[in-house]
Amino acid sequence: MTASDTTVDVEVEPAPERPFLRIGYVARAGDGRVIDTTDPDVAADSELADLEASGPVVVVPGEGHLFDPLEEAIRDADPGTTVERTVEPADAFGAVDPDAMATIDEAAVAPERREPGETIELDGRRAAVEAVSDGEVTVDFNHPLAGLTLEYEVEVLERLEDPQRRAAGLAATHGLRDVSVEYEADPESVTVRCSGSEPSADRDARKRTYVRDVRRLLGVDSVRVVETYE
Fold first, then answer.
1. What total number of domains does the chain contain?
2. How far is CA 136 from the centre of its chain?
3. Residue 88: pLDDT above 90?
4. Of the candidates 177, 158, 157, 159, the residue with the CA atom closest to the CA atom of residue 168
5. 167-191 pLDDT tens trace
6. Any bridge partners for residue 28, and if so which?
7. Which of 140, 168, 203 is where one domain is finished?
8. Is 207 exposed, middle or buried (0-12, 13-18, 19+ CB in 10 A)?
9. 116 and 61: one domain?
10. Could you tell me if 154 and 25 are in contact, meaning their C-beta atoms sit under 8 angstroms apart?
11. Which residue range(s) make up the domain with 104?
12. Using the 8-state DSSP alphabet, how is residue 143 labeled?
């Protein structure tokens, strides 16, 4: 078993006071297809095999957790309010860029990925295979949802005031659902406890972002991260 205990208390510029909202939502493309949701039942019934949902999330309007039109719509909404908004491509994943298409030698793509519809990574960028012909592969670097107008239905469930729930909710928003979070009022601090079989570069990146954001948004003096691996 290995363990580490790190306390972060570097000076961080606090953000303006903002609401913490616990919300649920469903996002659909113009043809009605579900492309994102917080509802596990809706996710299970969708056509997207890799769509996962873990229930309501905590968002802070002004922090980019949602697209701008959605954040503006729910910023002052009361609990129990359901907001429906249309988000145009310019405010979502952008328009389709024809210059984001490229033709490359098939040797740059693993044989098992040389099929239209496959997703690959080239030079750190995600791309979709569009066509394979005569030793060449045509790939599309556009976001999979580029060019789509999205229809959102967002329900505001709660406005969180308790610092403990704010800190824990923000951790889940950053993808840290497998950690415990403890808030102390005097002096103001947050302790994050993580465990697992081995360290993860992805989780480390999420933790760094969370530490920065929880200090800015809650104004805590320090954040302690305790990691245990067995």
1. 2
2. 34
3. yes
4. 177
5. 999 999 998 888 899 999 988 899 9
6. 34, 151
7. 140
8. buried
9. no
10. yes
11. 98-140
12. -
